[in-house]
Design a protein that fits this description.
single chain; 74% helix; globular; mainly alpha
Length: 212
């Protein structure tokens, strides 16, 4: 795959934003990010930082995996494109194969304090994998096809940016604004279908680009 392009970068950010609308992520954002009255003002930032670190580490691992298979990149791009499109189609029909990945769901997330927010973020990055699986795995597949660590860090940083900024905005927003956001969240089916279509098109783009 050629050097990272603007389309892939925007797709990574958009994937992060759309991941926030996941049913197990969105409802708890205000509670997690705002915290308690005696918590440090830096705690929300540390939480999203922890989440971002988890995602970026996944990107690094995906890059290393792709590097090992560098000689087969042309074929991997076909498979990657097909995989991402399949994830998009599954999302359109509300089929999430990652829901059964409950290994980290029993981790205690009742952390208090400032720097404990970082630990909470690292934990949430793992706990939310089953919920944001299709979006995240599609970005990781894109990273693996490139096989470059810098690309992995960049794309997952952009994904984390798209994921984290809405979290902070919603978490620190007024109650009235949160209620309006909840109204939007009632249209999760529409969001899911649109997200799935975006993944499907993006996957086809990768496959076709690899064939050119």
């Amino acid at each position: 795959m050629e050097d990272i392009n603007i389309t892939t970068m925007y797709t990574a950010i958009l994937a992060g934003i759309l991941s926030v609308a996941s049913p197990c992520v969105f409802p708890v954002i205000p509670i997690i990010v705002t915290g308690k009255k005696d918590d440090s003002i830096f705690r929300p930032t540390l939480i999203v930082l922890g989440i971002s670190i988890t995602f970026i580490l996944m990107g690094v691992l995906s890059s290393l995996f792709g590097y090992i298979l560098a000689g087969k990149m042309r074929y991997i791009e076909y498979v990657a494109g097909a995989f991402i499109s399949i994830m998009g189609i599954l999302m359109v029909f509300d089929i999430n194969p990652f829901k059964k990945l409950t290994l980290f769901n029993n981790i205690n997330s009742n952390f208090n304090g400032a720097f404990s927010g970082l630990l909470l973020g690292l934990t949430l990055g793992l706990i939310w994998i089953p919920c944001i699986g299709p979006m995240l795995s599609s970005i990781l597949t894109t990273v693996a096809t490139d096989g470059k660590i810098l690309t992995g860090i960049t794309l997952l940083a952009l994904y984390s940016l798209g994921f984290s900024v809405p979290m902070l905005i919603i978490g620190h927003s007024s109650l009235t604004f949160r209620q309006k956001i909840k109204t939007i969240n009632k249209h999760t089916a529409t969001i899911r279908v649109v997200s799935g279509l975006i993944l499907t098109i993006f996957g086809a783009y990768i496959a076709i680009k690899g064939a050119v």
